[in-house]
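step 3/5: co-fold with zinc ion
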Amino acid sequence: MTDPVVPPIPLSLRHLPTQGELIVPWITPRTADGRDLFGSVDRDRMGRALLNRWCGVCGRPLEHRAVLLMRLSDLPRRCSSEPALHPWCAEYTSKACPMVAGRLEHYRSAPPRLDTNMLSAPDAAARQGAAAEPWFAVWLAGYRVITDHGNLAASYADTGWLRIRPVTWRHLNIL
Ligand SMILES: [Zn+2]
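step 4/5: write C-alpha cells
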C-alpha cells in the first residue's frame, strides 16, 4: 500500500536512513536481509533509549521536554514501552507514521517476520487486525523507568505530565 503523505525531513533527522522518502527511526529494527520493520522495535536500542533518556526516533539525548506518543487504551497505565521523543521528532512521527497519523483504519492482520533481536509491541498479538485507535502526545518534563509486563517502560505515574494533546482523535470522527 502506498502512503502519499511525505512530510519534509527535519534537519535534526538527516543522519538517519530513509525508505520511500520517510526516515527510518533509530529504534526501528533492520532484518538481516535488509528490511526495515516499521512499527517494531530493536530490543537493545529500546532499552538503551529508555535507560539513557535518548530519543527513540533520532537516538540523541532528550532535553528538557519529552513526548510519549500513546494510544488511547494505554493512557490509563501512564507508561509506554516505546521511548520518549524530542517534541520535534514526535511532530515528524505524528505526520509520517501512517498509524499515528490516523491514516490506517486497522492494525496489520499478520505479524511481520522478526529476527531474534527484535521485539514486536508487547500487545501486538492482541492488536492484530483490530481497529486503529486515537493517538495522543503526552508531554513530560521527565519520566521514571519501570518494568511493565516484563518490558522496560517510561512511566509518568509519579512524575506527572505537562499536557496531553490528541494527535489523531479528530480523524476518527469520534467527537
Ligand atoms: Zn529525537
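step 5/5: annotate
The longest strand covers residues 66-71.
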